């Protein structure tokens, strides 16, 4: 059933995202980040180390040795943000299998709009 | 304030906002944005970025359980999400260009309105009468659910679909512009305009909130408005608080509890509006 499939993706994606965020914070605490970093909350430039604006930056942070713990948490944030889109993507073949082509189309439209948001984001960046 | 103290304070506050949001039926984000900006001095855009993440986190959990029980209507949610996501894309782009004080004013007004809807007695009565909305028939915007209180299967079909669609665009616009879930506005469109049962409106709105927020989140992210060290404790806290609040609500069953929280909501709404006018309350 499509509903159950979508529910499962939402649940797994949400739990996984939060788990990765917590993992990153744990690593950050282990490195003494909470004690040493002075947080700026006014969005002044240069950007804070906790602010990532592209997937590439997150990946670069993950590749570093030792790994950038904030990049790990940022990956968790990305997982969370991608979860609703993944749930809709899963629904498309499920609707097709149920021969509900109208809603396969609507789910595709919703997914396309989410992808447009990434294009808009890319244009800003 | 040291980062340790800041993170713990934000975590505790987010748990409180998440719980209060669940009890009031508002959602944690709309309460948290004014708290972060007024009491923690956090930049409005960082607060909105943290809020939109917490909105996705709480919506995913809630939507998963409502979809399994069949209270949330997946087709209805997807159909209306076309409108809310459209609105969110507009709103998220606007949030980057609209001056902060206008955002503060809009947030204050949205919060005031949401507070008003929680006071208003929500009828749990089921909408009566047959409907012949052509769009509803065409897109199969109908369903059944088992009502625990009435102890029977309830059949429903949406009315005034075109009007509901337009209202959903507005709800999405507010969500994208302010970084909130705007669940109260989505429920308003489904309950008041489309005459859907309150329980179906609330459950379906939960699913749509996450989709709508995901559309704006990418745009916020690329503008550098999502700070990991602010968004992480907020998301974890609001999620914990929402579970706590829901558990408390299930036990209390008493809507007068909501009135205890209303002064806080009114205070936050008023101070946001005053901030927009350049007056900072203590």
Textual characterization of the structure:
By secondary structure, chain A is mainly alpha-helical. In chain A, 76% of the residues lie in helices and 0% in strands. In chain A, α3 crosses α4. Chain B has helices at 3-24, 29-40, 44-69, 74-95, 100-119, 134-138, 161-178, 183-193, 198-222, 228-252, 256-276; strands at residues 142-147, 152-157. The longest helix of chain B has 26 residues, at 44-69. At the A-B interface, α1, α2, α4 and α5 of A face α1, α3, α4, α9 and α10 of B.
> How many strands, what sense, and barrel or not for the largest sheet of chain A?
none
Major β-sheet annotation of chain B: 2 strands, antiparallel
Helical percent range of chain B?
over 70%
Shape of chain B: globular
- The succession of helices and strands of chain A, N to C, reads HHHHH
Per DSSP, the total helix count of chain B is 11
By DSSP, the count of extended strands of chain A is 0
> Largest interface, counted with CB-CB under 8 A?
A-B, 61 and 63 residues
Silhouette of chain A: elongated
**Overall pLDDT level of chain B:** 86
Strand content of chain A: under 5%
Strand adjacency order, main sheet of chain B: 1-2
Q: Quickly give the structural class of chain A.
A: mainly alpha
Low-confidence stretches of chain B: none
What is the total tally of β strands of chain B? Answer: 2
Question: CA-to-CA gap between the ends of chain B?
Answer: 19 Å
């Amino acid at each position: 059933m499509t509903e159950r499939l979508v529910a499962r993706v939402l649940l797994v994606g949400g739990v996984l995202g939060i788990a990765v965020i917590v993992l990153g914070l744990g690593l950050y605490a282990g490195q003494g980040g909470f004690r040493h970093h002075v947080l700026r909350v006014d969005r002044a430039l240069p950007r804070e180390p906790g602010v990532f604006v592209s997937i590439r930056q997150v990946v670069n942070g993950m590749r570093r040795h030792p790994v950038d713990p904030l990049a790990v948490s940022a990956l968790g944030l990305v997982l969370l943000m991608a979860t609703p889109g993944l749930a809709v993507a899963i629904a498309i073949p499920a609707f097709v299998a149920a021969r509900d082509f109208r809603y396969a189309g609507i789910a595709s439209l919703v997914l396309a709009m989410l992808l447009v948001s990434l294009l808009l984001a890319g244009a800003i960046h | 304030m040291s980062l340790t103290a800041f993170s713990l304070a934000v975590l505790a506050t987010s748990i409180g906002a998440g719980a209060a949001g669940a009890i009031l039926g508002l959602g944690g984000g709309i309460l948290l944005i004014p708290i972060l900006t007024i009491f923690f001095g956090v930049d409005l855009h960082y607060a909105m970025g943290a809020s939109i993440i917490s909105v996705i986190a709480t919506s995913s959990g809630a939507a998963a359980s409502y979809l399994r029980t069949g209270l949330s209507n997946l087709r209805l949610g997807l159909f209306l999400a076309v409108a809310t996501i459209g609105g969110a894309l507009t709103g998220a782009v606007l949030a980057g260009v609209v001056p902060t004080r206008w955002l503060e004013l809009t947030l204050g007004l949205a919060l005031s309105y949401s507070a008003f809807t929680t006071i208003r007695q929500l009828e749990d009565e089921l909408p009566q009468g047959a409907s012949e909305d052509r769009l509803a028939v065409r897109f199969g915007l109908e369903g059944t659910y088992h009502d625990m209180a009435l102890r029977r299967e309830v059949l429903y079909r949406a009315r005034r679909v075109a009007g509901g669609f337009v209202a959903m665009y507005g709800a999405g616009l507010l969500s994208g512009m302010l970084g909130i879930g705007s669940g109260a506005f989505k429920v308003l469109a489904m309950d008041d305009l489309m005459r859907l049962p309150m329980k179906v409106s609330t459950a379906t709105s939960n699913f749509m909130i996450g989709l709508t927020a995901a559309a704006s989140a990418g745009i916020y992210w690329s503008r550098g408005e999502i700070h990991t060290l602010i968004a992480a404790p907020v998301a974890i806290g609001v999620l914990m608080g929402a579970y706590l609040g829901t558990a408390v609500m299930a036990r209390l069953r008493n809507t007068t509890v909501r009135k205890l929280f209303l002064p806080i909501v009114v205070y936050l709404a008023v101070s946001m509006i005053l901030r927009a006018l350049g007056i900072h309350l203590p």
